[in-house]
Design brief:
heterodimer, A: alpha+beta, nine-stranded mixed sheet, seven-stranded mixed sheet, B: alpha+beta, five-stranded mixed sheet, four-stranded antiparallel sheet, globular
């Protein structure tokens, strides 16, 4: 258990915590912005569908899996088309503050008393009225016409909109918060056949809107001055002010009691926690579930060498490193992010066996080391020395028939070479580059370079030397 | 007086004997060359480049004088790898000697022969090449 936990949290970086918190907040914000609408319910349905389909694969439910794939493929399109109103209302009607961190408490600022008094004044005077209180769902694609008012809600203003003779009195007035946003709005008529025969056009319009949205519509009949409420395809006749106030409170969520506020806070806290758990689960699924292996060939970097010493040879200059980690992290690794550093401060002249351990390898955060190959290097170090060494020409080819090279003298005869003491110890001659004999017919001079083996040796002065040679005819015996 | 003379003579002889033991007179190498062959105790076609078609190469050394029976070493190296060592006896009063190597196609390249005395002192290095 502890090992599992250690494995899960090994390589956990501050970037991972930021990743989880950021995406949890985005998920939480989506919930806050869309809560109360059908979007959340449909998204939950899609989540359940996805979980069911995941279970369908191991169970071998072929058609279920096939159907799921089809539904999920078009899911995004369906959500955008079906919920275009909700999405546009969230994106358009909110300011930046409410979009990013504001928490709307339903229509908590709607002055219900003004609406109630206005409605009763209209009823008393038998003036027909149609008042719409939208909730979360946008109405733009459902209603038609209307004149933007965007005026502060007041009893006088609301009554005057429906006053007979007012050009806007035939349509509906839309109230959002404490603002009358528009008036003269045409609502879609209901096509239901079970509505009472006493319902006129105003009632049918109210019913039609509530069939298509989550809005509440208040209707004041012109003939009898009756007040009716329409919500979620239901009709409620209002007989007194308290009944109207209760219904409006239920709709707007204007539950000013401490209990109601606590309920909302609890709901949001639960949503925040669920968002955090969901994103954490998804993160672990991505980072641990998609664990992958990769091999990198990394050059070895030698640190703190003695200035008087030189690295003569190394059993390997590159080391293969097998690493594991989340696939996105592995894929994002750049070659310079993996380093192998070996400390030579304790090394001596000769062959040094240096082990490569985890401490020598620098890996990016979140990446674990699995294997090092080779795990040990043989590094040969040597002290720098100078040595005077004789030069010998390296002749190749064939002298013309009848000739012999009697003498060959290098100028200078010796040269100074700098190199590791061990390398110089076994060197007693420096040879020239190959000198071709075929075209030599008489004594002369050749200018040639020198061959240094091992290549770590350095010439002190001369890169090229001269070879003076003496050619004679062979004596025939 | 006669006895004193005898004692002095004995002491002188003893001292001479001790001196001769401490620093014996060494042989003198008057000539050493690489050559294609040897005829009548003389090097034929001495040189520094030899064709493998020749089949063999000689290292000829001539010592004069040689004070006592001794030896020299001919150490043959191909590049810096010792190929073989030949011990050559020298006898008074003078001596010529040689070592030789049979050469094949694989022997092409730079060679050297080191001539060393019994105390491993380097007397001379001869450098040469085997070529086509």
């Amino acid at each position: 258990m502890m090992e599992t936990l250690f494995y899960l949290f090994s390589g956990f970086r501050w970037q991972d915590a930021l990743d989880i918190l950021l995406n949890s907040y985005i998920l939480f914000r989506l919930y806050v912005l869309f809560r109360g609408t059908n979007v959340i319910r449909v998204l939950l349905a899609f989540c359940l569908l996805w979980i069911a389909s995941q279970a369908a694969v191991p169970l071998g439910l072929i058609i279920t899996n096939w159907a799921k794939q089809g539904v999920i493929t078009v899911a995004a399109l369906i959500i955008i088309i079906v919920f275009r109103n909700e999405i546009s209302s969230v994106l358009q009607t909110k300011n930046l503050k409410s979009f990013l961190w504001g928490i709307p408490r339903y229509q908590s600022h709607t002055p219900l008393n003004i609406i109630i008094e206005s409605v009763y004044e209209l009823a008393d005077k038998k003036i027909g009225a149609l008042i719409v209180l939208p909730l979360k769902q946008g109405l733009d694609s459902i209603v038609q016409g209307g004149v933007p008012i965007n005026g502060k809600l007041s009893q006088e203003m609301l009554v005057s909109i429906f006053w007979p003779g007012n050009p806007l009195h035939d349509g509906a007035a839309v109230i959002q918060g404490d603002w009358i946003t528009s008036a003269g709005v045409i609502l879609p008529l209901s096509k239901r056949k079970d509505l009472p025969s006493s319902f006129g056009t105003r009632h049918r319009a109210a019913s039609g809107l509530t069939e298509l949205s989550d809005a509440l519509v208040i209707v004041v009949s012109e003939e009898r001055g009756r007040i009716s409420l329409f919500k979620e395809n239901k009709t409620l006749n209002i007989h007194n002010r308290s009944g109207l106030k209760k219904s409006l409170r239920e709709h707007t969520g204007d539950d000013s009691t401490k209990k109601g506020f606590r309920h909302q806070t609890m709901e949001l806290a639960a949503a925040a926690l669920i968002s955090l758990f969901c994103i954490t689960g998804i993160w672990f699924n991505f980072s641990k579930g998609m664990e992958t292996l990769a091999t990198y060939e990394v050059p070895v970097e030698f640190m703190n060498p003695d200035q008087k010493m030189e690295i003569i040879s190394s059993s390997a200059s590159n080391v293969k490193v097998l690493i594991s980690g989340a696939k996105p992290l592995i894929n994002s690794i750049k070659s310079d992010q993996i380093n192998i550093k070996l400390n030579l401060s304790q090394s001596v002249v000769g062959i040094n066996k240096l082990s490569i351990t985890k401490e020598n390898i620098v890996l990016p955060p979140g990446i674990r080391l699995k294997k090092i190959d080779p795990s040990e290097l043989d590094i040969t170090l040597d002290t720098l020395l100078e040595k005077e060494i004789p030069v010998q020409p390296n002749w190749i080819g064939k002298l013309p028939e009848g000739l012999i090279m009697k003498e060959a003298k290098a100028l200078p005869q010796t040269i100074r070479i700098t190199g590791g003491g061990l390398a110089l110890k076994n060197i007693s001659t420096i040879y020239t580059e190959k000198i071709l004999l075929d075209k030599i017919t008489e004594s002369g001079t050749a200018t040639v370079g020198l061959v240094l083996n091992p290549a770590s040796l350095r010439l002190k002065n001369h890169n090229k030397i001269q070879i003076e040679y003496l050619i004679l005819k062979k004596s025939t015996l | 007086m006669k006895s004193v003379f005898v004692i002095v003579a004995i002491l002188l002889l003893s001292a001479a004997n001790v001196y001769s033991e401490q620093s014996p007179a060494k042989m003198v190498m008057i000539q050493t060359v690489m050559c294609e062959s040897i005829e009548n105790f003389q090097a034929v076609n001495p040189g520094v480049v030899f064709s493998i078609s020749q089949g063999e190469v000689f290292c000829f050394s001539n010592f004069d004088p040689v004070f006592k029976k001794t030896y020299v070493l001919h150490k043959w190296y191909k590049k810096d790898r010792l190929v073989f060592t030949m011990r050559l006896t020298l006898s008074p009063p003078k001596w010529s000697t040689f070592s030789r190597i049979q050469i094949r196609d694989a022997d092409k390249g730079p060679w050297r022969v080191e001539i060393r005395d019994p105390g491993d002192t380097l007397l001379k290095t001869l450098r040469f090449s085997m070529a086509d």
